[in-house]
Amino acid sequence: MAAQHSLPKDQNWAKAAANRVRLPIMIPIPAGEFLMGTSDEDIKRLQVKESDWAYEWYDNDLFDAEQPQHVVWLEAFEIAQYPVTNMEYHLFIQDTGYRLPKGWNGFRYPLEQALHPIVGVSKLDAMAYIEWLNRLTGSNYRLPTEAEWERAARGDDGRIYPWGNTFDPWRCNTAESAKKGTTPVGSYSPGGDSPCGAADMVGNVWEWTSTIYMPYPYDPADGREEQRTDERYVIRGGAWYYTRKLARCSAREGMAATHSSPLIGFRLARSI
């Protein structure tokens, strides 16, 4: 794990650095209930429309991690419109000397990928970035919980994909799109946006959440929101390398907090 870095005490420097930060566009999500997880009806719908994989998933109990579907109440929060980009993360490295993400050549990303989502970062790296950003701006950014992420991705009507119940390869960056890599954030907007207006909620890159990978139903009081280094944490959204089967609002995987991959990035959330 990288050493902790403190911001310089020079207030003029701190102000100048803060002025260089492009603050994320945050979308407010009102308090309320939503349907979390995959229902039996969803599975039947997928078996009709996605029969090439949905029957196999059902036969091998792979939907179990997403069940039972249940109602979750969330307090109001904000979600970033886009994942954190290479350009944004690079300023963090410049100002702190934090370790470089895996995959960067030299001290920076390829110039043509400035607006691509940052990848090759662990959950611990994401949290270090957030701590730096909060110190610099005086804000309270954080990773979204798994429930907040899903609420932002699917709205409150239980849809399978951010745009509806039928997969469309023109609305997200998955293996079906044959991009063979990440795309600039917002490339599939507005057609691929979620009901609240968040972009790239499925496809492009998996995204870290603050939630330990545990069975449903989701209960924030059962220990799954504890922040530890020895647990697997939920990632959401699928990625460019994977097919549409993981580009669903309810699909979930678990990765060690120390794990980094060219397929995983993150976006910010904030309590209201």
Structure write-up:
- The structure is a single chain.
- The chain has one domain (24-271): paralog of FGE (formylglycine-generating enzyme), CATH 3.90.1580.
- It contains six helices and ten strands, in the order αββααββααβαβββββ.
- The protein has helices spanning 11-20, 40-49, 51-59, 86-96, 123-137, 146-154; strands at 26-29, 32-36, 70-74, 77-80, 141-142, 206-212, 232-236, 252-256, 264-265, 269-271.
- The strands form three sheets. It has a four-stranded antiparallel beta sheet.
- Helix 2 packs across helix 3 (51-59).
- Residues 1-11 have low confidence and may be disordered.
Task: Give the helices and strands as they follow along the chain.
Answer: HEEHHEEHHEHEEEEE
Please give the share of residues in helix.
10-25%
Strand coverage percent? 15-25%
Query: What is the average per-residue confidence, as pLDDT, rounded to a whole number?
Result: 92
**Gap between N and C termini:** 31 Å
Strand line-up across the major sheet? 1-4-10-5
Oligomer: single chain
Assigned CATH class = Alpha Beta
Pfam family, one: FGE-sulfatase
Protein name: Formylglycine-generating enzyme family protein
Domain Sulfatase-modifying factor enzyme-like: 24-270
Organism: Bellilinea caldifistulae
